Amino acid sequence: MAKFVNKESLTETIHNDLKISRKEAGHAVELIFKEITDALAQEGEVDIAGFGKFVIFDRKERMGINPVTKEKMMIHATKLPKFKPSISLKKICNSKED
């Protein structure tokens, strides 16, 4: 069965491994995600060695179709975060046997 990870499970892992309170572990998890979010919001990069890199991708303005009315409409340009996994993460993901 696949493992599921969310903020609560990360908090629990930090709490158990570092023997700190759940409140402190939760604060650490929130701080990490806030730092990543702030860097990306300022169009910076987040590069975590052995894991991957988060960058901002500029999606150009394009023509789309409203699925309800089938009317053509212009979809405005947006900035999106994009994740590029590291080579070592790719190797780990592809070496697991089911």
TrEMBL record:
UniProt-recorded Gene Ontology molecular function terms: DNA binding; structural constituent of chromatin
InterPro entries: Hist_DNA-bd, Histone-like_DNA-bd_CS, IHF-like_DNA-bd_dom_sf
Keywords: DNA condensation, DNA-binding
GO biological process: chromosome condensation
Pfam families (UniProt xref): Bac_DNA_binding
Entries under SUPFAM superfamilies matching the protein: IHF-like DNA-binding proteins
Annotated SMART domains: BHL (SM00411)
PANTHER family, per the entry: DNA-BINDING PROTEIN HU (PTHR33175), DNA-BINDING PROTEIN HU-BETA (PTHR33175:SF3)
Family under the similarity heading: Belongs to the bacterial histone-like protein family.
Name of the molecule in the record: DNA-binding protein HU-beta
Organism per entry: Faecalicoccus acidiformans
